[in-house]
């Protein structure tokens, strides 16, 4: 008989054992436990039909219809499990009820041990959201667009520091141009699941470096409690000259097709103003991507500058690291020194 285990144990054991999510494809696609495999007991349409029967005709009729759907699939379910070549499999559904227990029973008939998540994916989601309330030592990397913050985070990680790359997890670089060259963004719920997994791999007694972001990164929203922690965390400002930032932006964005660049510029038309937006689009259309980039960069500089003033006052007495090159690795030792000596005294 399958064992029912807690969320914490389920996640810990999931680091070495396969996880099977037996919810419908639509449920799984919207959001799932990172690394889980989808082996749906019912299709989206079948699940909807069973739900309707349950409401109108009761549980017994719904179960009977469910058996009609699953009967022909049972052999394929066991073949899927056997291909995993694991002595034990972790299984969950939405509430830890009939779908997961039924699949566990079936898979155990082919001599594979199964453990079921107590209260299912719903309990996992409670666990995820609670995780963002746990205090951690965040240091924010701030700076104007093109300062090299993402590259610095990568260099910090290579140097053995703990890093959360919010833009990497969300498949978006943060600005109106942030979707260029990126994969489709996950749902906010899936982003939260992935962020939780990243946080769980870190030591909360050590510094965690995070880029200073808005509450939303593209269409994805940061968890409110984690965002609150970010807004009260110390910030180190990366001070990079305008022309170096322009060079980085041209390197990273000018390579994209014209249509994508124009569409991105039009996303900020209301904030740029009609005239400046038209100037930027016209410059792009005539091949003058440098001018288009400068118009947009000036807007982002003004917006971020205002945001910093609102948060920290006009004096802006922030720890600052100058970066006068495209080589972001040159900042690492200075950043580590600031973190050690003036922020957390670690």
Give the topology.
Elements lengths: L2 E3 L1 H7 L5 E3 L3 H6 L6 E2 L5 H14 L1 H12 L3 H10 L4 E5 L5 H11 L4 E5 L2 H12 L5 E6 L6 H10 L3 E3 L1 H5 L17 H13 L6 E5 L4 E2 L2 E2 L2 H8 L3 E5 L2 H12 L4 H10 L1 H4 L1 H12 L3 H24 L7 E3 L9 H12 L3
Parallel strand pairs: 1-5, 2-3, 2-4, 4-5, 6-8, 6-11, 7-8, 11-12
Antiparallel strand pairs: 9-10
Across the major sheet, the strand order is 1-5-4-2-3
Give me the Rg, rounded.
25 Å
**Which CATH first-tier class of the largest domain would you pick?**
Alpha Beta
Major beta-sheet overview: 5 strands, parallel
- How many DSSP helices? 17
- Envelope shape: elongated
Alpha-carbon distance between the two ends: 50 Å
Overall CATH architecture of the largest domain: 3-Layer(aba) Sandwich
Number of strands: 12
What series of H and E elements makes up the topology? EHEHEHHHEHEHEHEHHEEEHEHHHHHEH
- What is the structural class? alpha/beta
CATH topology of the largest domain: Rossmann fold
Mean pLDDT: 93
Low-confidence stretches: none
Work out the helicity level: 40-55%
Q: Oligomeric state of the chains?
A: single chain
Report strand %.
5-15%
């Amino acid at each position: 008989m399958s064992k029912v285990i807690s969320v914490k144990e389920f996640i810990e054991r999931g680091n070495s054992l396969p996880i099977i999510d037996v919810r419908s494809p639509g449920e799984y696609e919207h959001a799932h436990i990172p690394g889980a495999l989808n082996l749906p007991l019912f299709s989206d349409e079948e699940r909807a039909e069973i739900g309707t029967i349950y409401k109108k005709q009761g549980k017994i009729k719904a179960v009977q219809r469910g058996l009609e759907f699953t009967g022909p699939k049972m052999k394929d379910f066991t073949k899927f499990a056997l291909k995993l070549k694991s002595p034990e499999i972790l299984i969950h559904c939405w509430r830890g009820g009939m779908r997961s227990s039924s699949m566990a029973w079936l898979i155990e008939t082919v001599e594979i041990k199964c453990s079921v998540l107590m209260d299912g994916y719903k309990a996992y989601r409670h666990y995820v959201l609670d995780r963002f309330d746990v205090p951690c030592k965040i240091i924010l990397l701030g700076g104007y667009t093109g300062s090299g913050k993402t590259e610095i985070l990568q260099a910090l990680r290579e140097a053995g520091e703990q890093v959360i790359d919010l833009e990497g997890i969300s498949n978006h670089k943060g600005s109106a141009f942030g979707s260029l060259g990126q994969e489709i963004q996950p749902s906010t719920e899936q982003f939260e699941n992935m962020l939780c997994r990243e946080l769980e791999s870190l030591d909360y007694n050590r510094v965690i470096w995070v880029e200073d972001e808005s509450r939303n990164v593209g269409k994805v929203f940061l968890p409110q409690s984690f965002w609150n922690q970010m807004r009260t965390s110390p910030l180190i400002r990366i001070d990079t000259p305008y022309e170096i930032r322009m060079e980085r932006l041209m390197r990273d964005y000018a390579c994209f097709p014209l249509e994508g660049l124009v569409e991105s510029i039009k996303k900020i038309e209301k904030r740029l103003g009609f005239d400046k937006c038209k100037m930027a689009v016209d410059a792009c259309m005539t091949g003058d991507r440098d001018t288009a980039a400068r118009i947009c960069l000036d807007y982002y500089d003004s917006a971020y500058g205002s945001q910093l003033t609102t948060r920290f006052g006009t004096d802006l007495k922030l720890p600052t690291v100058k970066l006068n090159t495209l080589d972001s690795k040159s900042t690492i030792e200075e950043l580590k020194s600031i973190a050690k000596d003036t922020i957390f005294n670690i």
